[in-house]
UniProtKB/TrEMBL annotation, chain A:
Gene3D superfamilies: Immunoglobulins. InterPro entries: Ig-like_fold, Ig_E-set, SoxZ, SoxZ_dom. Signal peptide: none annotated. This is Thiosulfate oxidation carrier complex protein SoxZ. It comes from the Bacteria.
UniProtKB/TrEMBL annotation, chain B:
It comes from the Bacteria. Residues 57-156, 258-351 form the Cytochrome c domain. Binds 1 heme c group covalently per subunit. Keywords: Electron transport, Heme, Iron, Metal-binding, Signal, Transport. Residues 1-22 form the signal peptide. The lineage of its organism: Bacteria, Pseudomonadati, Pseudomonadota, Betaproteobacteria, Rhodocyclales. The keyword Protein biosynthesis does not apply. This is Cytochrome C.
Amino acid sequence: MASPMRIRAAAKDGVTEVRVLMSHVMETGQRKDSSGAVIPAHFITELTAKHNDKVVLSAEFGPSVSTNPYLAFKFNGGAKGDKVAVTWVDNKGETRTDEVQVA
Amino acid sequence: MSRFSKTLIALLVAGAATSAMAFDRYQGIGRPATTAEVKAWDIDVRPDFVGLPKGSGNVDRGIELWETHCASCHGVFGESNEVFTPIVGGTTLKDIETGRVEALVTGSSPQRTTLMKVPTVSTLFDYIQRAMPWTAPKSLSPDDVYAILAYLLNLGEIVPADYVLSDENIREVQERMPNRNGMTTDHGMWPGASAAKGGIGNGGKPDVKNVACMKDCKKEVEIVSALPDYAQDAHGNLAEQNRPVGQTRGKQTGAPSEPAGDGKQSAAAATLALANEKGCMACHGVANKIIGPGYNEIAQKYQGQADAEAKLIAKVKNGGQGTWGAIPMPPQGHVADEDIKRLVEWILEGAKAQ
C-alpha cells in the first residue's frame, strides 16, 4: 500500500490553490538494477482531482514524471470547509485517494 | 588642580591598566565583551540541549509560518530541490524505529535529504534559529522555531499532526530521529579521547596514514604536466596543431624519441626547444612561413654561401628588413650570442627536429 499523499488546499478570492505531493516510485521500466535485470515499470497513469464531487482536474501521467511527483493547480470556486479529493491509478492497477478540507 | 582630583586620575589610570590586562599584546585595541554582548552571541543549541530556549509551537502554526517564510525556497512540503536540496523525504517508519536511515546504506533515495542525514534534532533547531529565513536570519522567535520544526518533523512522520513541540518534549523527539544512530565519532575529526576513555573522538588519530619521507627524499616538489610515453603519438604532433604565437603552444609530440644514442639528434631537438623558448617559433615555422620566412626557406636561400652564418647572426641580433618583404625582424638583443650562433647553425643545417 502506497504512503498517503500530502495535500494542501487553500481558498483565496474565489480561487482554490491545491498542492499535492504524491509518494510513488515512478519507475520507468528502462532502468536496470545492479545485477543487470530490468526494473519493471511502475508509474502513475491517471490522476483525478475532485472538488466535493465535481471533477476539476483530470490528468494522464507517464514514465517521464519524477519519483514522488509534486503537482500544483488552481480552480475557480471552492470555499473553506469544502472537500478536495485526489486519486491516482498506476499501471499495476494500484490506486490511492486522499482527501482534505479547503483551508 | 586639587590633590583630590589628582588621586582620582591616578586611580582611573590604574583601573584602566587592570581591565586591559587581558589585552596586553594589543594595547589600546578593543575591550572585553560585556555579559549582555556575550549572551546575544551565545545562541547555539547543543545536542544535549544546552542553550535551548523555553517555548513551544504546534504543527498548524508551523504550516502558517512555513507558507509565509520558508515555502518559497523549500517547497510547500519541504520537498523542493530547486534552491536547496530537499529537507523532507527518504525516511521510513522503520528508520524511525531503528535510528538508521536505510536509504543511506542502499542508496535507494534519489537524493540525501536533511531528515535523512541529521542525527540530532537540536541541530535543526539551532540552524533554523540561527540562519533562517535566508533573507532575515534570527528574525524568528523561539516559539516560531518550535512551530516550524514541529511541521518539518510532521512531514517526516516523526511526530503526529496534532503535536505541540516544546523544550520539555524535544528529548522524546530526539529518540525518534530517523538517523540518530547514523553518526560516528570514531575518527580524527572529533576532539578528545576515544569513546572507551570517556571522550567522543579517537584520541586525535588521523584518518589517513601518510608516512613522512625520511631518506632519499625529493628536495623540491616540481609541478609539471607530463604526457606519458604511450600517449605521445595519440594525436600526432601537437606543436603543429597549435598556433605558434601566444601563451599556449603545442608540445612537440609524435613517436617517442629514440633514447639519446646519437648526440647530434638530441642536440637538434634541444635547439628546437631553444627556438621555442626564445620566441623564434612565433614568427618562423620550421617548414613554413608564418610572419617571417620558414627555416627551410632560409636554409635554401643561403645554401652554399660562406658568410651566411656571420650574416644571419648579425641579422638576428640587430634585426633586419627587406630580404623577405616589408615586415621587419626585430632585434633579438635578449638572446645570448652563443644561443644565436647555435640557432643559426641549426637553421642552416636544415632545422631538424631530431
